[in-house]
Amino acid sequence: MTDPRFFVDAWDPAYGASFEASGGGPAAPSSAQVDADAELPAVDWRAIGPRPGVRAPDVVLLVDGVRRIDASVWTAEDDGASFPGLAASYAAGVVRCDLQRGAARLAGAKVGRGLFTASPSAVDVVAGSVRYPVHRVSGTGELNKLPAAVQGPLTALEVEVSGAARSDGDLLVVDGPLRNRRQLPRTLGYIKTQHSQYLDARLTAVVTGLAAGERSPVFRLGTAWGGWSWYLRLPVALGAPWAGIVRMECSAELGVDEAVALADLSLVTLPRFASTPYKDPRAPQNLIPIAGLERRLRALLGDARLLHRVLTAAARAGATRP
């Protein structure tokens, strides 16, 4: 009897794993409808390397956002009811990478804050010089659902800062799914953690068999957000089947030829930004400019302990504004 193969994920366990299987295991399929015949017929799926003549754009913009819960709160309503809330800080920024000059710089960053709650009576919270405007959520506002409400304002902030930095001919790479940013031109979603398997076992074998610097054919996802998608493997030492693999997205409004062109472009662009294990615990998927941007954005959020203290003081003093 042959012993099973054993792998250690390259990521630091504090960050989870690069492939996060559901309770059904790595082979558990997603319920999403998949059209795998977009670029190549599914029966002909194979690894695709860089195509001759395709070169990286002169300018690449990488955008990311961070969020942090500064405090959990509860409201007391006149009728005796109570609603949970979250006082959250979030920030978005964009790094402009000039590949011609080999230089990168922060091209824009912005911080937002908010009080997220379903309370009908909640008003803005003022904590010292910091204001947390009310973001009223729908439904009953259960506490465990409130963190997801921060994503909408954060995404809007990412669109704002990236839009201000764009120029003709650049390529915008969004850290995470595109969501409602699919209308942005020349934009890719970059998903570094694989929560679901969208392909059947035979096509998944093509993905896990990719060599560094190769990609899968483009396929179409019929999820609520939809869109064209493909996998590529970044430079990585031999290891687990999903090591170094990221999933890319582009708008469903594009034609298949446009999606394939973006897939080819991603293959000659993204590997140069891959991180290394001795520098980043989420290497190689956590791209070097993104890692630096995350550190900068977290610093812009301010001191978490200080904000918690001033929020506590504001609550005691009833320091709110209509």
Write up this protein:
This protein is α+β, with helices and mostly antiparallel strands and 322 residues long. 21% of the residues lie in helices and 28% in strands. The chain contains six helices and 13 strands. The radius of gyration is 22 Å and the shape is globular. The N terminus is likely disordered.
SSE layout and pairing:
Blueprint: E1 34-35, E2 59-76, E3 82-98, E4 103-117, E5 124-127, E6 130-132, E7 134-136, H1 146-149, H2 151-165, E8 171-175, E9 187-191, H3 201-208, E10 219-221, E11 227-233, E12 245-250, H4 256-269, H5 288-300, H6 304-317, E13 320-321
Parallel strand pairs: 2-8, 4-7, 8-9
Antiparallel strand pairs: 1-10, 2-3, 3-4, 5-6, 5-13, 9-12, 10-11, 11-12
Which properties best describe this structure?
322 residues, disordered N terminus, three-stranded antiparallel β-sheet, globular, 21% helix, 6 helices, alpha+beta, 13 strands
Short characterization:
By secondary structure, the chain is an alpha+beta fold.
Strand ordering within the main sheet: 1-10-11-12-9-8-2-3-4-7
SS class: alpha+beta
Mean pLDDT score, rounded? 86
Helix content: 10-25%
First CA to last CA: what distance?
71 Å
